[in-house]
């Protein structure tokens, strides 16, 4: 029998899948209807009433068949499973599923339909989210997730500028706060021991591939209504969201095994996705908008996503997977508040080279009011492919969890350019030369330390040993040419400058300079210790801090852990400590060379590393942004004038 042949769509049309009734085990029969999509009036009756499905395509192996008007069409096993679970025995169901409703062999139609994808999911009566088939651990996993958040939600959650109470947090998430009787029951509930295999059923829920796919973000966020399920078991998505946060009073995140740390990273992604949807829902009512305005300054994530900027969507969801690299871009356009309909620079195109897509989007972003943010995230050290400008951020290759810990320049305290405005000029494509105003601070001067191999944060104690070795080598590099009591250019001792520079002078809202100083001192003890037995080495450091500083073991452990967290963030970003030609302590992007130059760009909160171009005389290439201790608050601006430079 000949395969099904699609009939062409008119402009503004979509196909609706009519899933015909059938008994379990019978073949899947469907019809396809053309309908005009009325995205501007989704609540009014029209001929495109349907439910949209959000699912994972899965591997194209052991393909199944669906029959459209009697003609076969191949579909993946995952879609076959989903349709069979959705099929009724008595009545037809109107659905939209991309694999069937878009002609996958027609790249022009595919581009046109992908452009409409945001409206397709906004217009659907509801979005059916399929997390996959049920397993023997599903029920136990969902029960454990519910017990975890209900047990701890009364504690509230920490944010960078304060705490949210349990009641406020529950309202944010759209969950019902447990009653006093329920709270007592859950507080006394027995949960598995921390870091034990008993948490695996809960982790397996978040390890499902749906949570890792980039396309599901807009499908879920833009939906008018969401029905989530595993197999045929309904799942409350707000309960999954509640369990993905860090709670106060030392509870932290779900205490999974160290080998499951990567799953926590996907839970972080899921929390961002869920937050996007909750903000969208709350923003649709006057009460919700008032609530957001009243508490937004307290919470970084909620503030970040109250307006969906394309630059943030592209950056923070780089951890998600995409079969086609360019879909990392196309999947975000429909959600971005700052992207106009039919924006020429952001056309969906499955034919042109991927380098063209990357450059087009970068040109769009760098000229926006947040252009410096994309610029600061770009550079040769993060460039996996040739043929794109060094100043363009390439999001087609996953940065993994690094994207989630990269602090937005909008929230950092750095202010190297002194509050000036980012001004750029762009040459026409394909030249793509960026003109900025900047001044040269100095040369890098000395080669930064080399990494000690890839750091695997999931390797437990070995990761801390790696950090100790890294810290020891970095500490010696910064101070090897100094003497006790020597002053840094800022007037502080070189010892104090090194303490701050090794963690890019980070500090959380609950920490004091003294706490960070104690944590740093404990790490210096560890760096010179030859004891490879980590627990005993840490215990020795805690006892010594207790005696020397007159603090409790709990306080000593807090100081040690907080400095560890800041150190981990620096190492995780693959920053390399270095001493510049004039003796400044720096953290440089990988790939920086002694002949490279440190520049301050007007409007950029952090200094950048530039290398002189070997291809174009008088031009530069961007290596990446950096940290230089002592010039991060505009100290280098005195008497300096910006000049025009060209970056390609």
Automatic annotation (TrEMBL):
InterPro entries recorded: HET, HetReg/Transcr_Mod
Every Heterokaryon incompatibility domain range: 50-219
Designated name of the protein: Heterokaryon incompatibility domain-containing protein
